[in-house]
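Field reference: sequence -> structure
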Amino acid sequence: MNIPNLPEPLASFNPEIGLILGSGLGFFADDRIEVAGRLSYGEIEGFPVSTVEGHAGQFVYGTIGGKRVICMQGRFHFYEGYSMAEITSPIRLMHALGVRTLFVTNAAGGINPDYVPGDFMLLRDHINALGTNPLIGWEGDEGVRFPDMSEVYDGQLRTGLRAWAEAQGVVLREGVYLAATGPSYETPAEVRAFATLGADAVGMSTVPEAIVARKLGMRVLALSCITNAAAGISKTPLTHEEVTETADRVRPQFADLLTAAIALA
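Structure field:
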């Protein structure tokens, strides 16, 4: 893609690592990045803007452990009315700026009965239940036309993070994430169907970004914060407030986990 006119110093920052922070997880940018600058999505010509509470809607860039990172503090979702091309435009922009490793985070509902709110899940694989694919109608010649999806989430990075978590005594689940459109939460019947398909957690993001990143040859690692039990498993009605409250409760552990993941890149 053509890089839009970006202000200095971002235009020449040359980040090596990209981060996407999901619902309630944007604090990481402020807590752990040695910030060099910030850029609101609204200041980028033709760029979408975040419309969901808990998504600050800006790029934050700087360093973590000496590595140059650019971070999405807030993402875009299909349910906001954006096209797949718009949702994934930040991935193309980060790739054009130099990013070759992408870390994606999200808040997810636990389907696996062993999962409890506050758990972390490393994505081993995903199921795309969005009804479309971000590569349909792709404009541009970046990457391969038919990217292999045998291992979307980098095995070497996953192995390294599992070893770190075990050494630190951190419980790190590993499972399959299913992406649904939202914005309504899933029904109990849908959750039972998703469990039959092999899903361990369900959310409304991540999959389009991961698909585009793999098309572009980027390494991908994704982490879910299990913020609630899915419908039919949860004993209470599901709310966005529950999602953000749980994310806030596990804030230090999440920050440590993501920092350790970045150190592996």
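Note: The mean pLDDT is 91.
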